[in-house]
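ATP-dependent DNA helicase (Hermanssonia centrifuga), 155 aa
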Amino acid sequence: MLSDEQQFVLDMVKQKRNVFFTGSAGTGKSTLLKEIIGWCTKEAKGNTTKFAVTASTGIAGVNIGGSTLHSWAGIGLGKEPVKQLLDVMWRQYWIMKDKEKERRRRLGIPEDLADEDNSDEHREDALTVVGRWKLVETLIIDESEFPSTNESHAI
């Protein structure tokens, strides 16, 4: 059972609000985080591109069933200049777009004909870093060791 404060934070998440919560050891941060992840999982109805669970370190990511923020964001260690990181992401995105157009052409699907649920575009976007950013509705970042200012800017 969540405390009133924890429930307030969970309710904010349910309202699609940005939240930041912190606290001393043993105050229930992990319990609350598990509740938030559980709600996001249920809300996404199996669509794992709608939310991402990340942490600043690999161990923390594994502990919450996620990945590192850097890995999810597609920046590796994030040591390259921001422009270079963005160029790589956009290049990958446009390569995937071209591959998808070619696939649709081979199958005889007219370019102006889109599936009602845009599943082709959704599948294609989910395969690219840019696509992840386009599709994600909730980004969870665990751990108080936040990325540096330069890393945050890259992300």
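Helices lie at 4-14, 29-44, 58-63, 69-73, 82-106, 119-126, 129-135, 149-154. The first helix runs from residue 4 to 14. ok done for today
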